[in-house]
Structure formats: structure tokens, C-alpha cells
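Hey L., structure's done. Input below.
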Amino acid sequence: EDDAEVRFVVDAGQSGDAREIPVHRSFFHDNMAVQDPVLLHDGVVELQVRHVARDSVIARVVHGGTISERTGLYSPGIPATAPPITDEDRPLLQMAADQGADYVALGWVTDDQDLLQAREVLDEVAPHLRLVAKIERPEAFARLDGILRRSDAVMVRRGDLGAQLEVTRVPLVQREVLRRANRAGVPAVIATQMLNSMVTSPRPTRAEASDVASAVAAGADGVLLSAETAVGQFPVEAVDMMARVIRQTELEPPPRPSQPGYELRTASFTEATASLATEAADRVCARLIVCFTEHGRTALLVSKYRPGAPILAFCTSETTRRRLSLTWGVRTDRLEPSSTVERMVEQVETRLCERGLVETGDTLILVFGAPMGTSGRTNTIRMHRIGG
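Output:
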């Protein structure tokens, strides 16, 4: 409650209450000072430090509210000192790998070195896991380009970010992260409080629906529900509503990432092929862009240019198929590799006709590597007319 005193103590498994809250030992450190703010529940509950001791901190409640177990705890401006992955995390990562997880999200990232350290640990425990960098600290945004180079995807955690930044800056940060992630060809997810009223209501506010639509229109690969489905009273309705907003928004053409100076830099064969495939698909009004990809890189790069035609990625790996589900505009199918280009085209046409995805006269843009069966060497575009 407002003006109440709360004592933070080291968490030893005990229960907390409105007067005493157990927290992780890392909260108690030499940087803590009287009058520092302490924020709970995405910054909704605010306290101010009044007394600091070795294993306890007393704070006054400035803005009260209800908090629950495992609520986020922040003190803005205090640097992160813990390693990105602790010894406690290792068995959890192993469990994730054993359960077939494809991505692991790394919280409280400050720079690309955090991702390098995390990658070293993952190489020991679960080398196939991909890394999602959670952008929830001001430092991460300031060092975003390095983080984008080292991560497989990024997630903007607006609740945590808004607890440490001036709230008026959060929309600008979100937009800039999407712009730079799109330009780098890194999938980007917007998370937290997207349909927050649906925790207790069967319908969202108009502003929340607009928020989801704005994220999609700005180039997000994914939008994430959190409390709505974790503890909300209407989880199924929340998922259905978000899907409906996404589908309606995507009736409009997607934004194309700006590429200032693109023509002045040297692109890889794969990137140049992906760019040209998108341009060709637009010019001939292709029904589909069909990619053949072993690890997903080709489809990821084609997605980067936000083509008007849907992208269908043929993969032999189920893991690659699952990972690509995070990428904008990409659907996947399984197709065994062919020995010749003509055989591949024949297989693709038969599969697409059987599934009703194309009709006679439709144009396809095929993107693949030659010679056939060569991994990591996408260098060929072929235009094909169904039944032609």
C-alpha cells in the first residue's frame, strides 16, 4: 500500500507478504543507495530505498499495487553483474534440449559479449539451440547492432524495458529495433502487454488491437502474449483475437526494409539471390517464391525483403521447419532432395498442384543452390510457369 514500508530479504524459500519480500541475493550489492527507485510488476509498483544493509533493504512504497510470485524486480541504472548463463541454468538448458526446444531466449542482454558467452555454454550443453536476445535493458538498445550480429532473433520485452526507460521512449525504441532487425534479416518479436486487458476481459481495448496491428505493420516477425495466456482468464480468446488482428493487418502490403547505401556494399551470393528473387516475384506477379534450404538461411534472407508473394521453404530437416515458423511470411514443407533441376521442378509442381496451392498458368520463382545438393550455396533463380 502507498507509504507502507517493505523489507526485502534474501530468498531462502520462505513465503513473502506485504511487509517482507524475499528476493534473489543478487539484489543486494554495493551499488544500492538510499533514494534509489525499486520497481515491481513492469514498473506499476514503485518503491524508494530508505535503508541498505548487507542482506536486507527497507523501502517506502511510492505507488502501491498487487504483486505475485516471481514478479520482475528492477532498480534502474544498476549494471548487470551476473553471467548471462549461470550454473543453475545449465540443467534447465539440458532439459530444454531434451524436450526438443528450438530456441532459448536470453534475458537481460547488455551487449554481444553476453551472447558469445551464452553460445559457449550452449555449445557444451545443447549446440542446436538458437539464441533469442531479449531487448529489455537500455544498454542492449544502445549496442543493438552488435547484438543483431550475434543473435538468431531478438525480442523487445516492453514491460521490462518500460520499467527502465522513460515510457514515452518505448514506442520509438520498438520501431527502431524492428527497422534495424528487418534490415539485418534477423527475426524480431514484440512482447508484453499486447492484449493486457484480456487477462480479465474476453475482449481487448481498441487501443490494444491497434498496438498489435502497428507492430505487424512495422515489420515484426512475431507478436507474443504473456500474462494473457499464462495467468489470464481468457487464454484461448486472446490467441484467437491476436490471430484475427494479424490476418486483417496483413491484407495490406508489408513494409520493405530500407537499405540506404545497399548498392554500395558487396553482398553475398545468397543475399543477392534472395533480393533478386523478391524483385523478380514482384515483376511477374509470382504466385509463390519456393526456396530449397537445408538450414533455413535462404528463406530467412528472402523474408528479409518482405516480398508480396508468399514464401514456401522446402526442407529435409524437421528442426529447420520448426525454426522457420518464427520467420515472417514463410511456410514450410518437406521434400527429398533431387539429383537434377528438372526433377526438382517436376516434384515441386506435382506437390503444389496436389495441395491446391497453384493452378495452371501460375508463375513460381524457384530459389536454390547449384549444383544440386550443395548446402550453403544459394546462387540460382528460376522462373517456372505451372503447366507450361
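The first strand starts at residue 5 and ends at 10. The radius of gyration is 24 Å.

-- N.
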